[in-house]
């Protein structure tokens, strides 16, 4: 049987890794897929041929990606260019030409996935995107297929390695955010413009996808709350540790009676939780569902071959199903297209969580009572208080509060009132808390 012919868009880090993995493991992959898989046409402008094993086996390399998606001999297109455009146009043109698509582009799926999946459904082709979330961890397949018998209750994930590396270094080595960020850029973990990583946008793209496949709803990136880690200070890392917690940059999606919470922000997690001990550039996703309970998925969230592993796994899935009736393939967003529900995404003010508050106050009688009165009036119960000794000659002392769960709007009101007190210096530092129990 003739091998399935692949068109590859992009020969960068992941593209090169995909070529290497397909070449090195060709026999094993063919045994699993039932047919050989061969890249016959690739497109790239800038690449290093000396770094890509198996590049010499590609028949044609073009500098125009549209030539590849128009190639009548190509059966499946792999999009590894990234970004929104021209990736969107290339993927839609490939679908229009009746080609299946594999992509690692989480931004493309999060923002344009609804349009892309509708086009694919109309043409009877598949768009696979396992590599778009958590790199080499097969989390899409786990949630979409492995947990198909379950009602998903919530998902919490460390889904950006750069942010996790920064927070790990701050905790383990007592370093400041800016110092670690510069090192992460030097090591290649963070881009020259690190905004997508440290501000949580990359994680929000991935969380949008996870929320949709977990709860069977259209992709809604614009309604995902996003908060970065740039305001986390070394003192917060230390105080969290003293209280038995670790700070992680989490993506959380949870189904409630009122709707779905979908949020990315720094989060205190009890240090005894397995996910709290995921360090460095590693990723982990914790899924809680009604039948099986909690399951944890851990591994490399980025890198050439870990991501290529997911890309090739998607290829194998598509090749296995090439002769299958399109109506009987695994749905893109886990649920049948006509069964997707327009579930409300809750605004952040309506979400409910516990909180860590760091407040700098004048060290004099009555101040603590004023703060606790404001919290009480807002319906906020205090779980713990940690008051630190003031530094020599310092006028203000840090006071740490851990609260029980309360709606965000109640906490917003309380923080506004606390910051208006004459005895309070600067803004209140607020970090949300989750027990993940």
Written description of the protein model:
This protein has three domains: about 5-135 and about 305-335, Rossmann fold, CATH 3.40.50.720; about 140-300, 2-Layer Sandwich (Dihydrodipicolinate Reductase, domain 2); about 350-435, Alpha-Beta Plaits. The protein has 14 helices and 17 strands. It has helices at about 15-25, 25-35, 65-70, 85-95, 105-125, 140-145, 160-175, 175-185, 195-200, 200-215, 235-240, 305-320, 365-375, 410-420, and strands spanning about 5-10, 35-45, 60, 75-80, 100-105, 125-130, 150-160, 225, 245-255, 260-270, 280-290, 295-300, 350-360, 380-385, 395-405, 405, 430-435. The strands form two sheets. Strands 7, 8, 9, 10, 11, 12, 13, 14, 15, 16 and 17 form an eleven-stranded mixed beta sheet that branches. A six-stranded parallel beta sheet has the order 3-2-1-4-5-6, sandwiched between helices. The chain is elongated, with a radius of gyration of 24 Å. It starts with a strand and ends with a strand. The model has no long low-confidence stretch (mean pLDDT about 95).
């Amino acid at each position: 049987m003739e091998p399935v012919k692949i068109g590859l868009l992009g020969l960068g880090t992941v593209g090169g890794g995909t070529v290497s993995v397909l070449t090195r493991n060709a026999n094993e992959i063919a045994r699993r897929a039932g047919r050989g898989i061969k890249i016959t046409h690739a497109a790239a402008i800038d690449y290093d041929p000396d770094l890509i094993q198996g590049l010499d086996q590609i028949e044609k390399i073009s500098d125009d990606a549209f030539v590849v998606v128009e190639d009548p001999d190509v059966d499946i297109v792999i999009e590894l260019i990234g970004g929104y455009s021209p990736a969107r146009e290339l993927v839609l043109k490939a679908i229009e030409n009746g080609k299946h698509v594999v992509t690692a582009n989480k931004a493309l799926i999060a923002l344009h996935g609804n349009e892309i999946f509708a086009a694919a459904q109309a043409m009877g082709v598949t768009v696979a995107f396992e590599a778009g979330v958590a790199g080499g961890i097969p989390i899409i397949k786990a949630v979409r297929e492995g947990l198909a018998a379950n009602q998903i209750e919530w998902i919490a994930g460390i889904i950006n390695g750069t942010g996790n590396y920064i927070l790990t270094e701050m905790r383990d080595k007592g370093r400041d955010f800016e110092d670690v960020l510069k090192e992460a850029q030097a090591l290649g973990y963070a881009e020259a413009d690190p905004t997508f990583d440290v501000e949580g946008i990359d994680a929000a793209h991935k969380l949008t996808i996870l929320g949709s496949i977990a709860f069977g709803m259209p992709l809604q990136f614009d309604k995902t709350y996003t908060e970065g880690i740039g305001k986390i200070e070394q003192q917060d890392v230390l105080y969290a540790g003293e209280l038995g917690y670790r700070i992680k940059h989490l993506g959380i999606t949870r189904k409630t009676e009122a709707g779905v919470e979908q949020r990315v922000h720094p989060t205190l997690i009890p240090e005894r939780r397995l996910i709290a001990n995921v360090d460095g550039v590693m990723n982990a996703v914790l899924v809680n569902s009604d039948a099986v309970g909690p399951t944890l998925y851990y591994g490399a969230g980025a890198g050439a071959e870990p991501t290529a592993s997911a890309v090739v796994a998607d290829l194998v899935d598509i090749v296995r199903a090439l002769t299958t009736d399109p109506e009987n393939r695994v749905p893109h967003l886990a649920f049948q297209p006509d069964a997707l529900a327009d579930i409300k995404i809750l605004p952040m003010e309506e979400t409910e969580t516990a909180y860590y508050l760091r407040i700098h106050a004048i060290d004099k009688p009555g101040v603590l009572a004023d703060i606790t009165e404001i919290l009480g009036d807002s319906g906020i119960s205090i779980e713990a208080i940690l008051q630190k000794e003031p530094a020599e000659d310092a006028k203000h002392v840090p006071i740490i509060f851990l609260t029980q769960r309360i709606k965000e709007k109640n906490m917003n009101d309380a923080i506004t009132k606390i910051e208006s007190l004459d005895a309070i210096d600067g803004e209140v530092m607020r970090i949300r808390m989750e027990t993940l129990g």
